[in-house]
Amino acid sequence: QLEEEKDEDSFDMEVAVTNPEKIGKEYFFLTIFELMNRTFSVWRRFSDFLGLYEKLSVKHSLNGCIIPPPPEKSVVGMTKVKVGKDDSSSADFVERRRAALERYLQRVVCHPSLLQDPDVREFLERDELPRAVGTHTLSGAGFLKMINRASDAVSKMTIKISDSDAWFDNKLQEVESEELQLRKLHAVVDSLVNHRKELCGNTAVFAKSMAMLGNSEDNTALSRALSQLAEVEDKMETLHQEQAASDFFILAELLADYIRLLGAVRGCFEQRMKTWQRWQEAQSTLQKKREVEAKLLWANKPDKLQQAKEEITEWEGKVTQYERDFDRISVTVRKEFLRFEKQKSKDFKSQIVKYLESLLQSQQRHVKFWEAFLPEAKAIA
Amino acid sequence: KLCKQYFPVDILSKILSINVDLQTDATLQVDISDALSERDKVKFTVHTKSTLPNFKQNEFSVVRQHEEFIWLHDSFVENEEYAGYIIPPAPPRPDFDASREKLQKLGEGEGSMTKEEFTKMKQELEAEYLAIFKKTVAMHEVFLCRVAAHPVLRKDMNFHVFLEYNQDLSVRGKNKREKMEDFFKNVVKSADGVLVAGVKDVDDFFEHEKTFLLEYHNRVKDASSKSDRMIRSHKNAADDINRIASTLYTLGTQDSTDVCKFFLKVSELFEKTRKIEARVAADEDLKLADLLKYYLRESQAAKDLLYRRGRALVDYENANKALDKARAKNKDVLQAETSQQVCCQKFEKISESAKQELIDFKTRRVAAFRKNLVELAELELKHAKGNLQLLQSCVGVLKGDT
């Protein structure tokens, strides 16, 4: 078994995607990138990010690289932005997109091979990018659909290549099982976000109702206490709102990202299978050509024999080439997978701790609010 | 399937903290010592301790069902002698429908979930059922305690029969004709209510009370329904956290890597925090929602008292007019005088006791709110601190590991 690769000299590049600004009908984001004391900042559109993904996947997915999928397009969200709706939900949407683009870009620059890619450098450094075309069709979701269809076809052939392949088999199964659990988890977190938002709304309404009751109450001290209770509930509403935001931006988005990433990982494994298939098919073609040659020898047809010999040489070359390709992609996929696992572990730990810390802060304020209210309640006489 | 469940309910009155400052003197103490939940009814064991001479024994118990409580309540309402009192509101009907439905759905869906999930959910639904059950018993007990504490109502004949007669009282459910009569009675009452409410009272105290109660009742109603909705959202969120804990557990058991161990720790944390969240929702229900619901019913009973007084006033005024007419025509004067006297006495009697009742109502209300709001704040604090401690220790451990 291959041991975990030692940490390559990763510079821990940092990128930021900030300052969403609406110019015309679309938003531009300020993309800031720091390298060796030089800061590059350029304005990029959402479609620029998609264009980058397209270029990278065309070049690298065949090598077995795990290409980070870009954020999904959202028709509803985009329409609101274009129509110029300036409410909190479209502000939420822009923030969601900004954060997702930042995470996407962060993953790209953390990838040692991708960082070398000239398209990535151009994306980070060039002042103005030509508008990417054809990104309507090839969003992250579209690419994933292609992967899924391909993987259906491949998995229909049960393949047991060799002993070392057990590693790939196991890992693929783990990935599929994990993806399933993450989808489940994401659905529940989504439900939590919705219920918290509901709680938020219901608390606000209740607070108003309590305030009204306090106004009606003719015992002065009780009336005052009820108003104070209404204020506490108002503060609770704020807490719930912030909590729902944490639930969403920290937890739900993390899960959504990794569901897409696991899809990309599956894509790599499938790519390796395709490479193997191609090698196998070449071998069987070579075999057929050799049979043809043998028959021709027997039938004594010298001119056709020459052609047959040339074809054999051609296919021998291909077989060698494809075997080399397969070995190479196997190495890459293995390396990529281990790097991915490390990154995933880091990501989950840091994000979940961040989420727990947000819960912690919320509870601290909880305590403060109720501590302030208790003497008011005791003062009722 | 719900089989007979037998729950000892000795600390019930602590659950529903409505009966504040109710004198429990030796002459008459009432409580619900046991309760039995059958398929579609609840049987309450009403236990009485009394030194009053009209009871055959000093201590005795009978079994009563909800309909019998309603019969007793209605008998108070229909009794003209008690027109000047706030009749303690009848306890709400035991309603396990929602809980039963959930248990049934769970049973149907047993095949589609893991054994652990099923057991977990079953335990929770059973706990929910138990909570509803405890509440209904407490509500029935509070009603009886309020009656026993009332200086006049505690002497009521029907009440004594209710407490002592150890056979079924045979108060069958109202038949169709009676239900129709009830319906019309209520229509007349509300029309009356509007009429009476419109008449400005000479007495400042009652005028103020009328204005106050009308507004207060509506606002309590609003607050009650809004509090219910808020608490339900809270429960839903706690349920979600429960499922998150389960899924994280599954993820954590797939392997023994670093990140899997991490998931297991977080899963354990969420298991604990969601228990606290569920308790917060339950305590809010008990201290806030139930308080509001109770005062919704009590304020209605107080309004009913005002309507009765209002009607007595109208009767009195009509009797006055009739007397003037009789004097003018010099016909049936004695009859009119007698009738006017009766109305006057009735009105004054009601006014006198109503005033005291309304003052008592205020005192009770303030005390109950104080008790519950203080307890609510203390519980919220306790739970928030509990949550905080759990989170702090978990985050400390997780950060130390990485």
TrEMBL record, chain A:
SMART domains, alphabetized: PX
GO CC annotation terms, alphabetical: cytosol; early endosome membrane; lamellipodium
Membrane topology: Peripheral membrane protein
UniProt entry keywords in alphabetical sequence: Acetylation, Cell projection, Endosome, Membrane, Phosphoprotein, Protein transport, Transport
Record-linked PROSITE patterns: PX (PS50195)
Location of the protein in the cell: Cell projection, Lamellipodium; Early endosome membrane
Keyword Acetylation assigned: yes
GO MF entries: phosphatidylinositol binding
Short name of one Pfam family: PX
GO biological process: early endosome to Golgi transport; protein transport
Keyword Transport: yes
Domain of life: Eukaryota
Limits of the PX domain: 1-131
Family: Belongs to the sorting nexin family.
Name by which UniProt lists this protein: PX domain-containing protein
Organism: Oncorhynchus tshawytscha (Chinook salmon)
Gene name for this UniProt entry: LOC112248088
UniProtKB/TrEMBL annotation, chain B:
CC annotations in GO: cytosol; endosome
Cited PROSITE patterns: PX
Function: Involved in several stages of intracellular trafficking.
Pfam families in the cross-refs: PX, Vps5
Provenance organism: Oncorhynchus tshawytscha (Chinook salmon)
Official protein name in the record: Sorting nexin
Listed SUPFAM superfamilies: BAR/IMD domain-like, PX domain
Family indicated by similarity: Belongs to the sorting nexin family.
An example molecular function term from Gene Ontology annotations: phosphatidylinositol binding
Biological process annotations from GO: protein transport; retrograde transport, endosome to Golgi
Domain PX: 22-169
Keyword terms: Protein transport, Transport
